[in-house]
Amino acid sequence: MAKRSFWAWGHESDEPTVEQMKTAAVDIAERYNVDLTPVGPPNPADLSLRKPRISPPSSLADICASDDHDRAVHTYGRSFRDRIRAFNLDFPNPPDVVARPRNEQEVEALLEWCSSSGYAAIPFGGGSSTVAGFEPPEGYDGVVTIDLEGLDQVLEIDDVSRSARIQGGIYGPALEDQLRPHGFTLRHYPQSFEFSTLGGWIVTRSGGHYATNQTHIDDMVESVRMITPTGLWESRRLPGSGAGPSPDRIAIGSEGTLGIITEAWMRIQARPVFRASAGVTFPTFAAGAEAARRIVQTKLWPANCRLLDPVEAAAAAGMDGSSALLLLGFESAEVPQGELIRHAVDIARETGGTIDDANIRVSDGSGGNSDGDTGRQGSVGAWRNSFLNAPYMKNHQAGLGFVTETMETAVTWDRWPNLDQTVRAALQDALNRVCGGGTVSCRFTHVYTDGPAPYFTFEGMGRLGAELEMYDEIKKRASDAIMAAGGTITHHHAVGRLHRPWYDQQRPELFAQALKAVKRTLDPNGVLNPGLLIDA
Amino acid sequence: MAKRSFWAWGHESDEPTVEQMKTAAVDIAERYNVDLTPVGPPNPADLSLRKPRISPPSSLADICASDDHDRAVHTYGRSFRDRIRAFNLDFPNPPDVVARPRNEQEVEALLEWCSSSGYAAIPFGGGSSTVAGFEPPEGYDGVVTIDLEGLDQVLEIDDVSRSARIQGGIYGPALEDQLRPHGFTLRHYPQSFEFSTLGGWIVTRSGGHYATNQTHIDDMVESVRMITPTGLWESRRLPGSGAGPSPDRIAIGSEGTLGIITEAWMRIQARPVFRASAGVTFPTFAAGAEAARRIVQTKLWPANCRLLDPVEAAAAAGMDGSSALLLLGFESAEVPQGELIRHAVDIARETGGTIDDANIRVSDGSGGNSDGDTGRQGSVGAWRNSFLNAPYMKNHQAGLGFVTETMETAVTWDRWPNLDQTVRAALQDALNRVCGGGTVSCRFTHVYTDGPAPYFTFEGMGRLGAELEMYDEIKKRASDAIMAAGGTITHHHAVGRLHRPWYDQQRPELFAQALKAVKRTLDPNGVLNPGLLIDA
């Protein structure tokens, strides 16, 4: 099996070469008019972690590892902060043990060991958290990170109900590989798809492929099977229910604090055959936003309805920097999509959008390729490639002092113009002060009848060695602005350790108390992912 | 203001006349080949309730009532059991006080009074519960029913976000009346619409108008404002979020056990203009079910996709009793619906359905009447009238010993044929033994990609005075069968006192413990609707 990089997105083979890092340095040096000499990538041989403070009981020794590389891989996610710290070989608080249970009995045994010993037990999916979702806590005598990669099977497919029973540790590609021979797909593609798992998606309320209607993984969950320190929590498979508050909706979003999801019945679907796509340009981001709002309020339910501001449209889709770009995509296994996209394009044109009829691509799947190609051509295809490649490109930019990150939220339409203005201002202001300038851009990743989910990207030239402090100041300013403007601190990246201060402002205080009470019931010794969502 | 009947569906003016009851008796007597002499309707003057055991503090006296009629109206909902008991003037455990707060301060003061005195505090919406959702508990020194009818305003409309801030005690018709002048609608029409409230819908996870896609009120809630004995619980207005488990999803379905919903921001929409409808006949219920499954899995998202078995099709839509009927309806404020309904009809025909092209009704709203008429003609219109009138017709059947009720569930498609068979068998078997025969019928009220929500109706000729015991036996047999076949004990009627035994089997036991912990946090003295969902 390919070995994961301890610092970069992907495997060791995805780590950038010195040459690639030089190319990135030249690009950034030109853009920011500075001199840059890249620091070379770190050497795994230089890893020197704190010695493990605990060892597993002999009954669990077979599934536990404690070597430096493995523990380093399980210390940080893949945010900017994570990448910088790992690149700098800065691992002051790694887990002591990395456990890889092969079945539920071993998950139970691991929780029992941690619970009875007072060790922190950290569930680990694909390792792509951008919010420090599995970073070990301080103040524990031992930390055991439970990597669920062994629970990697689609166990059962119910084709009449279009549902599948799937293990929680399965990675995105394996999940799709196992559904594909049966003609089905989950069709959930977060940007982390390659390095994230079903269980991870569920406990972080992941947002995926669909830009409208049912966007979050929440709505695809039919039932959940979760091991807690107190025992098994399993909900009944149901297409819908009105029997009390939904048990699943407490497990969904629990970020590893209540239990470990070993299985879930998920709603799956036939693979799309009919597709249509269009990239509509707008003179301003605001005009594009108005089109997106009208399209979603018309309930045409496009699978894709992503709006890029002029900066993003230039960077990701090859536009000239003067126009915003609305990417529309429709898809269906059975129904031709031409009517729908033409209706959406009509709305877009009414609000000032421009597209030639020839650039509205409609495919009936007759090419025999169920993946079609309407989403892989023109500006839509350019954006798609850029989206998938983005995490890898960031690998090249480490070791330069360059500061860049993304932030996402959701807000009602009435508050959106103010949020756009104040968050951009906060970011630009902070970049100016901290980095002496920089760039801010925004896109909509999802749109709802009552508001968009905006996704901001910022970058600035920082100072090597000071990136983390610089980042922290920018992040704080922008997060405060999101809160003040009525947004959520996260639409689909989760809370983690990173967003706790703002999450605490956002949620009802009584809900925090209620969640603490739930936590005490399921995890009486407070060992599961301590510090996430609530204090012990 | 019209006075509510203490026993019948509706107001006192809706109570049946002696003549109407005679007509119903003749009809039932003919069908069951028995002699029937109806007992006349009860006289409000004969109400003689237990004297109130408590009186409100003087500061609350203005908003409290304790007369017999008012307390009788607030004792029972409108299930079969409720109607029989009220008809028989059987009110052994009425509330002591009926309070009508006019604002949040008075809600707080009422909860404070109950919490400090140990009196049960029972939130009351429109009074149409069919599951004993607000029936006073035994074992309390005092019971205060809090009728929220004073909180009856749409407070704010955000037309750009298509959302409205609405008070929890508003009845269905008033809610729509207040949205209509702005061109909006919530479009949530449970059968109880006339006598149920927004807050009631939210805490019971009401299912309404839409038969596919977003069917439950759950998905229309943008945020919730709830007064608990511990304080205010208010979530942030957000179109979507991934920040921890959803606070709203704990309030939704809480059945008055955690707090009183005083306001909610709700997702509203433009009133439909384009409509299409069709009634497709099938030789069997199973063939119709296959069509419904394929239509919903194709994700055409019809607003109506109700399937009536031959018995229901005959009774409610004037069919001849040999065919099942699939009622399809599409609607949109902006998009013509002809293509969609023709696609759905094509699928229905492929699975054995029959309809003349001339009977596919498509309206572009050009008549200028935004209510259109496509849903009010033919078999579709006949069913609509029957649906709205059904609760009133039951008023006529009291006092005869006649036993009739509905039961609803949801189940995955793979388990549906067995559930259909075993629940029908259980009902028929119980009717045969208890009533010496009777009728069972079924319809789908909602359909999901992974399963239908079946709705059973049963009736049999019981014995006057013994109806409740007879009903209990039938209900128990059928509910056990639903559980055994993998269904939920309720899809949209809620749990109440009626469904507790089966709800306890269905939910994860650890979820019950978690919910108890939440309850202790929000309602430490256990005064809010005691006995619902969990034991104190």
SSE blueprint and pairings:
The structure is a homodimer.
Chain A: H1 18-32, E1 64-65, H2 68-73, H3 80-87, E2 97-99, H4 104-117, E3 120-124, E4 143-147, E5 154-158, E6 163-167, H5 172-179, E7 184-185, H6 198-204, E8 221-228, E9 231-234, H7 248-251, E10 260-267, E11 269-270, E12 274-282, H8 285-297, E13 304-308, H9 310-317, E14 324-332, H10 338-350, E15 361-363, H11 378-395, E16 402-408, H12 416-435, E17 439-448, E18 451-461, H13 467-484, H14 500-506, H15 509-522
Please tag this protein with its features.
homodimer; alpha+beta; Uridine Diphospho-n-acetylenolpyruvylglucosamine Reductase, domain 2; Uridine Diphospho-n-acetylenolpyruvylglucosamine Reductase, domain 3; Alpha-Beta Plaits; 4 domains; seven-stranded antiparallel β-sheet; five-stranded antiparallel β-sheet; 18 strands
